[in-house]
Design goal:
TIM Barrel; binds 2-succinylbenzoate; 13 helices; 2 domains; Enolase-like, domain 1; binds magnesium ion; 7-stranded parallel beta sheet; alpha/beta; 17 strands; 5-stranded antiparallel beta sheet
């Protein structure tokens, strides 16, 4: 396989419902769709799902564009490779920038499986044709508004609901939701918002009484010791998200007993190859995993769905239907969930068609890199309106 042209489409879609985490709130999302074209004309799509600003990780839409354009795509264009892992090896020397890598890596997987005529899920080692999925609910202005959101999702058939928490928005809303939904699979996610103080540990012990499936990322990403100390104090499994970027982070967390469940995100770990490696290591260690999301458009959502079909993903993944987030998604058909499950696509490659007209209509700017006859790379940038960023927390 040889990639002869690559395009980075900066696409903005409105969210059907504003989403707030402990760090920021948003009403639109801007992601970068990566389109790779092989010399035989086959196309593969991937998604760079970085938040606009550096609130979840250090990356932004702007840094992912820069790194993809200056380092990742030039390393890939024109190179011969026979497997997506060999494509990924082309940028092994680039440190960090996992979101940017993830979009290009997933596009290489989509391209290769499309060319081979095999479903992405099968190529990754997936064994199931449908996977349990859940929804993630942001911080709401009032407890009543949150209860209404939970009810909506329960009515839509989701068996697992994750609630975002932050200091000041924790024990009260969680107790209210637990009282209203005594038997539901509930879990909480703090996105690292709690300082590692005795007061925070006391909040977590209080949450422990609500029979939650997990307490996700209460403390700062690098503070594995606080997560290990917490796991000694609570029966609820402590789940890591932001703390595990590289496989070595997972090894360290396992050695420290700082992790009871792992959220595997394709974006956070730098792509599908890395996500499969994390799955394999967790499975060997007997650690349950699920696939987290970054509010992906359909392209990234389809890749997450394929990954979730691997046998170690025993907990419901954040691959809810497109309609929870977008009135019209960039893939056809949209990702659909029924009775808390999403079907794993069976067609070749990603298994969804990209709605290119809709992508064009919502594109803010585009960068195209093409292999020139002399072997060099020609870059063409069509800038969109300034400022793909959001105002921040
Ligand atoms: O921690 O899982 C998270 C969205 C943005 C930043 C961080 C997180 C999230 C989500 C998204 O919870 C859930 C989804 O994509 O369905
Ligand atoms: Mg999380």
């Amino acid at each position: 396989m040889r990639v002869v042209e690559a395009a980075l489409h900066v696409v903005r879609l409105p969210l059907v419902h504003a989403f707030a985490t402990s760090s920021h709130s948003k009403t639109t999302l801007t992601h970068v769709l990566v389109e790779l074209r092989g010399e035989d004309g086959t196309v593969g799509w991937g998604e760079i799902a970085s938040p606009a600003g550096p609130w979840y990780s250090a990356e932004t839409v702007g840094t992912t564009l820069l790194v993809a354009r200056e380092f990742l795509l030039p390393a890939l264009l024109g190179a011969e490779w026979d497997h997506p892992r060999a494509a990924g090896a082309r940028w092994r020397k680039v440190r960090g920038h996992e979101f940017a890598k993830a979009g290009v890596d997933a596009a290489a997987w989509a391209l290769w499986t499309q060319a081979e005529g095999v479903p992405l899920a099968r190529a990754l080692g997936g064994t199931r044709d449908r996977v349990p999925v859940g929804v993630s609910l942001g911080i709401e202005p009032t407890v009543d508004a949150l209860l209404a959101q939970v009810q909506r999702q329960v009515d839509a058939g989701y068996g697992r609901v994750k609630l975002k928490i932050a200091p000041g928005w924790d024990t009260e809303p969680v107790a209210a939701v637990r009282a209203a939904f005594p038997d539901h699979d509930l879990h909480v996610d703090a996105n690292g918002a709690y300082p590692a103080t005795e007061a925070s540990f006391a909040v977590m012990r209080a949450l422990d009484a609500h029979r939650l499936t997990m307490l996700e990322q209460p403390f700062a990403p690098r503070d594995l010791l606080a997560h290990a100390a917490l796991q000694e104090q609570v029966a609820t499994p402590v789940c890591l998200d932001e703390s595990v970027v590289e496989l070595d982070d997972l090894r360290t967390a396992l050695a420290l007993r700082a992790v009871g469940v792992l959220n595997i995100k394709v974006s956070r770990m730098g792509g599908l190859s890395a996500a499969v490696d994390a799955h394999d290591l967790a499975r060997e260690a007997g650690l349950p995993v699920w696939c987290g999301g970054m509010h992906e458009f359909g392209v990234g959502r389809a890749a997450n769905l394929a990954l979730s079909s691997l046998p170690g993903f025993t907990l419901p993944s954040d691959v809810s239907g497109s309609e929870k987030y977008y009135a019209r998604d960039v893939v056809v058909p949209p990702v659909v969930s029924r009775d808390g499950h999403s079907a794993v696509p069976t067609g070749p490659g990603l298994g969804y068609a990209v709605d290119e007209a809709w992508v064009r209509e919502n594109t803010l700017g585009r960068t195209v890199l093409a292999l020139a006859p002399d072997g060099g790379v020609r870059v063409e940038v069509t800038p969109g309106p300034a400022g793909t960023g959001d105002p921040g927390p």
